[in-house]
Design brief:
heterotrimer, A: 322 residues, mainly alpha, MetI-like fold, 13 helices, B: 379 residues, alpha/beta, D-Maltodextrin-Binding Protein, domain 2, nine-stranded mixed beta sheet, three-stranded mixed beta sheet
Chain lengths: 322, 379, 333
């Protein structure tokens, strides 16, 4: 706003106006209030940085201790007590697979829904869809988990724990985000492109597939990536439907699957280990160490996805975008 | 325009490459968190062919047994490479339910089956009935966080009941001071911490309070904490964490998890007994098998108000539940092998090393072995 | 996140395209198929939301139809008296209380941050600072739980003690403050941090949309920066701020892990923020009890989940409604 404060040239001789415009003649009270506000606002911002810095610092300082190749490439099979062993490979794999399947479910539905809204949607149905997509973004994650449980429990009986159930829960959370971002990207595609295509006699569906989607693909990829980044850290629904396991499971359709957030929670819940006096291979805080290292891994994955999304957006976006 | 299209498709291709790369990278992990070399002993045992067992055993139940189960699974799977045992520490109630519904082969439970459950068990076990083996005996410690007090605090059952029922609210209360002469007690509020979930630990603890201090503790023994508005946490770890979290707290937890926290020596008869595996085993040996049970059902009638010297009465006995008959011979062998290992001196020692529980006595082992031998093929 | 619903570009009335009228045979068949497919996807969204409701209702039904006495017998943690409503009641109270504390702490802070970014920070830095706040949203909730329980809770004890000591006469801060600080107050602080990014992002956008003319007019009248904000920015943004707060409220209501990992649960209608074992939220209670619940227990928990679902839906719809009203308003500008 600094530029706006530069006063317009005042009418000559109008000393009062000049003083007011340059702020020189402000009553002290108003001046003080203005200063105070500046301080308050800056403080608010600084205050918000406190948790950010604190979280980052704690995760880094406590997570780096165990964060190494061994930790990333082994599971927890056969690890118990305070053993100086164990890793998160099974959890990383579970997280990636469950999120992958969630993406496979969400992207086609979300993208087609966005296409419907932008290219076809009219009337009450489109209005309803738009409204309920917005409403869906507010579904609490635990409710999505309960839904997936209810769905799978009806088919497989109570007590079911499946990786794919986790994917379904995540896609309930992911679909509205995908629809929202795809919709925005499709609307950015200039109408001239569509009209040019129609003028050449290209049918509408081909126009959408070959012209509209192609132009918007970078933006869509960015949106999908951000949606993935948002659900990949979800814990509650996976805790309910994907369960916990200490070995590698690569099949989302069979058996429990560990995921990184649930792993972090599980390690946290186990707490300190009491080592028997004289035990050589025993670290009392091992569970917390693993939890922090896994938290670091999870945050790195989320950051990587965000970064990738921004890179795609920057390098491949159509020039007309901004 | 063409330039733009080319660029975007290149972007898509780059995305595919990145994804493929991630997947290849992801394919290089393993389940061998613990290198087999470190476990050479059991490997050679396997090579000698001591075991022909193969298959999968599924169990679920009490979280109190979790550490012991981990040690048992590691030991048993090490000796029998073709066997995989899983144990889901879902809680005693869930463990019993899953077992009775036939979802699991065995269960861990902090409480013995009640009559209704026994009837269901009869059906689930092909009419042969169920065996309940007290294979996990663990003292429950009363833990407190008072870094300035270096001596071990002594308390009578009435004092403990007073603290946990909220009648005694300060650490320098005369009731505590009278039992701990010469100890400087801080003028600090007592924060009792209990389990927020239903648990066998709570049930055993309240059972003890109700039996040993009936005039102070008037609540019915139950797996749920009877008071509300208290500081509480989920699971043994949660309680320990909470007690560790602030000074002046007191809680109860599986003794193996007490760590560096202070533990109370409990008044039994005329003396004060600190917890120890031996003292816990002593009270179990002094307790008879519950009346009216089937032959191989070893549900115990614990003597909470025992005055026997050197016995520590706040114990948790967690049972391993198994059927006396299974459908297939392979399963019978597997269950027998597993339970035999659990009851063996080697198995009990492995658990004690990991969980700090009390190994079962010889006399109890004989009874357990007899029960295991009775497991047969369902007819 | 765009707040104003983007309108259909006017030139693209699909039915008017000459291409469509010219094509026939295979192409028009494919055309129709594609149109159907994408319409079906739109309908899928509606179906999905309906399915969520229906499945939850189906699974929750047993808990509602079974008599409270039987439920109490079958579920260890079910209250002896009061029935299902008596069980949900304190949970709803706890959920609302935690979310409101978060909102009371978070909203003013977020408005301050948004103002700082939109009107105070140097223009060149603004976007970078915005990203910084957005980073708070990139941290998974389970990490916030870890942080809140292991880092924040021990450090917030002195604050609680101070509050209890000097403001203890006020029922909200009734002492003694719990040790360790596993209280709804700590939870509220962590939730406030978690909802900061969304409230800030929406506020920032709304502030930036303040009509330039209004601001310049205020400046020309000799207003200070504070006065510009008070007279031009905030009145314009009021409904935007309200809807931002509502969105934040929606988030805070449904947050599970941070509450689960920090709060010492209890079932009371208590306003004592600094005491432990008084409150519990619906979401955390579900996550806490679900893994070990039996069939009746699961059904009861799903019933409470349904209540949470309805509450968050109501809050979100209200927020959207406020936004859409505002969209009509700003059309005049």
């Amino acid at each position: 706003m600094a530029t706006l404060q530069t006063p317009a040239p005042p009418a000559a001789g109008d000393e009062e106006l000049r003083r007011q415009l340059t702020g020189a003649g402000l009553e002290p009270r108003r001046k003080r209030a203005d200063r105070a506000m500046t301080v308050v606002v800056a403080l608010a911002f600084a205050l918000a940085l406190v948790p950010l810095v604190s979280v980052t610092w704690t995760v880094l300082s406590r997570g780096l201790e165990r964060f190494d190749l061994y930790f990333l490439t082994v599971s927890m099979r056969g690890v118990f007590g305070g053993m100086d062993a164990g890793g998160i490979y099974h959890a990383i794999l579970g997280t990636l697979l469950i999120t992958l399947f969630a993406t496979l479910i969400s992207v086609p539905i979300g993208l087609l829904c966005a296409i419907y809204l932008v290219e076809y949607g009219r009337g009450r149905l489109a209005k309803a869809v738009t409204f309920f997509v917005d409403v869906m973004t507010g579904i609490p994650s635990i409710v999505a988990g309960l839904f997936a449980y209810a769905l799978f429990a009806l088919v497989f009986g109570p007590g079911v724990r499946l990786g794919i159930a986790g994917s379904v829960a995540l896609s309930v959370l992911m679909i509205p985000v995908v629809v929202r971002s795809c919709e925005e990207m499709l609307r950015l595609v200039p109408n001239e492109l569509r009209e040019a295509s129609y003028a050449l006699g290209v049918p509408k569906y081909l126009t959408i597939l070959k012209v509209v989607l192609r132009t918007a693909i970078a933006g869509i990829a960015t949106g999908v990536m951000l949606a993935v980044a948002r659900v990949i850290g979800e814990t509650a629904p996976l805790l309910i439907v994907a369960g916990t396991i200490d070995s590698i499971n690569t099949n989302v359709f069979d058996g429990r699957m560990m995921t990184l957030p649930v792993y972090i929670f599980g390690q946290y819940r186990q707490g300190n280990v009491s080592c028997v006096a004289g035990a050589a291979d025993c670290i009392p805080t091992i569970n917390f160490d693993r939890a922090w290292a896994a938290a670091l891994t999870l945050i790195l994955i989320v950051m990587a996805l965000n970064l990738l999304a921004r890179l795609i957006a920057r390098f491949f976006a159509p020039k007309a975008g901004r | 325009m063409t330039v733009k299209l080319n660029r975007t498709s290149r972007g898509a291709r780059a995305g595919v490459v990145v994804g493929a790369l991630a997947l290849t990278l992801a394919a290089c992990g393993s389940d061998n968190a613990v290198t087999p070399a470190a476990d050479g002993g059991s490997e050679s045992a396997a090579a000698e062919g001591t075991s022909e067992l193969a298959g999968e055993l599924v169990g679920a139940g009490a979280s109190s047994q979790e550490s012991a189960m981990e040690a048992w699974r590691a030991g048993f799977q090490g000796a029998n490479p073709d066997v995989s045992v899983s144990y889901d520490p879902a809680g005693s109630g869930a463990g019993r339910t899953q077992f009775l519904e036939g979802g699991t082969d065995f269960a861990g439970s902090d409480a013995a089956l009640d009559e209704e459950e026994l009837a269901t068990a009869e059906e689930r076990c092909f009419g042969a009935g169920v065996t309940e083996l007290p294979l996990y005996i663990s003292p429950i410690a009363v833990i407190y966080n008072l870094p300035e007090v270096t001596e071990q605090l002594k308390m009578s059952p009435a004092t403990i009941a007073g603290i946990f029922s909220g009648a005694i609210t300060s650490w320098n209360d005369p009731a505590i001071a009278a039992e701990n002469e010469g100890v400087t007690l801080p003028d600090l509020a007592i924060t009792p911490v209990n389990r927020s979930d239903e648990s066998g630990t709570t049930e055993n603890f309240t059972e003890y309070l109700a039996a040993a201090a009936p005039e102070v503790w008037t609540e019915e023994p139950s797996g749920d904490w009877p008071f509300t508005g208290t500081q509480s946490a989920q699971g043994t770890s949660g309680v320990v964490q909470t007690v560790e979290g602030a000074e002046g707290t007191i809680g109860y937890a599986d003794a193996s998890r007490a760590g560096s926290l202070g533990t109370v020596a409990v008044k039994v008869g005329e003396e004060y007994v600190p917890f120890s595996p031996e003292a816990a085993a002593a009270v179990v040996d002094a307790s008879p098998v519950a009346e009216g049970r089937a032959e191989h059902d070893l549900a115990l009638e614990l003597q909470r108000d025992t005055t026997e010297a050197g016995a520590y009465p706040i114990v948790l006995v967690s049972y391993t539940l198994a059927c006396l008959a299974y459908e297939e011979q392979e399963q019978v062998d597997l269950v027998k092998g597993w339970l035999t290992y659990l009851a063996s001196a080697e198995g009990q020692e492995a658990a004690a090393g990991a969980a700090g529980n009390a190994p079962i006595s010889e006399t109890l082992r004989e009874q357990v072995t007899a029960a295991i031998d009775a497991i047969t093929l369902a007819s | 996140m765009s707040l104003t619903p983007t309108r259909r570009p006017e030139g693209a009335e699909p039915s008017l395209t000459p291409a469509e009228s010219m094509t026939h045979g295979r192409a028009s068949l494919a055309n129709r198929a594609f149109a159907r497919l994408s319409t079906a996807s739109g309908v899928t969204i509606l179906a999905l939301l309906a399915a969520v409701t229906v499945f939850l209702v189906i699974e929750a039904l047993p808990a509602v139809t079974t008599s409270p006495a039987e439920l109490a017998e079958r579920i260890s943690w079910f209250p002896e008296t009061g029935g299902i409503l008596g069980y949900v009641g304190p949970l709803v109270f706890g959920t609302l209380l935690a979310a409101l504390i978060a909102l009371l702490i978070g909203t003013p802070l977020a408005i301050g941050i948004a103002l700082f970014i939109s009107h105070y920070a140097p223009r060149r830095l603004a976007q970078g600072l915005g990203y910084l706040v957005d980073l708070l949203a990139a941290i998974p909730s389970v990490v916030y739980g870890l942080w809140g329980s292991l880092v924040l809770a021990p450090r917030i004890v002195p604050v609680q003690d101070l509050l209890a000591q000097y403001l203890g006469w006020f029922p909200l801060f009734d002492g003694p403050a719990a040790q360790p600080a596993r209280t709804v107050f700590t939870v509220g602080v962590v939730l406030a941090v978690m909802i900061l990014p969304i409230i800030t992002a929406v506020c920032r956008e709304v502030f930036l949309q303040t009509p330039r003319l209004h601001e310049e007019a205020a400046l020309a009248l000799g207003a200070t920066r504070l006065e510009v904000i008070r007279t031009a920015v905030l009145p314009f943004a009021r409904s935007g701020i309200i809807s931002a707060a509502m969105l934040g409220l929606g988030r805070a209501l449904g947050e599970t892990m941070a509450v689960l990992m920090i709060l010492s649960p209890g079932f009371a209608y208590s306003f004592a923020l600094l005491q432990a074992g008084q409150h519990q939220t619906i979401a955390a209670n579900i996550a806490n009890q679900f893994p070990e619940a039996n069939t009746a227990g699961v059904s009861t928990l799903i019933a409470t989940g349904l209540v949470l679902f309805v509450i968050t839906l109501a809050v979100n719809m209200l927020a959207r409604w406020v936004v859409s009203r505002r969209a009509d308003f700003s059309g005049a500008n």
